[in-house]
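Lecture notes, unit on protein representations.

Consider one protein chain, 228 amino acids long.
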Amino acid sequence: MNILLAEDDKDIRDLISLHLSTEDFEVFFAEDGRKAIEIFENNSIDLAILDVMMPYFDGFEVLKHIRQDSEIPVIFLTARGDDTDKILGLGLGADDYMVKPFSPVELKARIHAQLRRYYKYSPGKKQNIIKLGYLTLDKESCQIFKGDTLLELNAKEFKILELLIENPGKVYTKKKIYELVWDDTYYGDDNTIMVHMSHIREKIEEDSKKPTYLKTIRGIGYKMERIE
């Protein structure tokens, strides 16, 4: 999940970053509104945290820009305790609002709540991100992560992993994998499949000799284990 954090106070940015570092989030930092808009336009952002008062463009202007193209959750941060900013922000389409100083633990809980709510009512979005244990498939960007590490995969390796991650527990024969991934007739070339599976195991498993994820079903084919 990609989070945009637009906040001109470095101490607050560092505090939030520290607490989000334990989660499966990639945080994009912006110290002003202009940078926040630039990040939003050039990245697939799942949730935005916006400080109300920032140089160049304030949080309200950034929110207006976001709402032109997206309905992602937006959480406002403000130092003002009255309801003025809250009413204005919610009126422009913000989803939540926190007054400084705030608990970073509470912020993290609100982030999770907003993401759950967003994906509940936007099921098509949820299908773009598929998690299986420490593996994350991002279908929109055609990337697969092992924890926070982007895996370096060739096109065939990605297609094989995409197929198996989307269908955990399902056994695929070598013939079926070849026909789906290579889009060609299978003539019993087991070596091609075996080499690709070996390379994939080296990249996703902690111990490729004792695989936890990608299992061989002897005499049949392969499957990806269901792992929470």
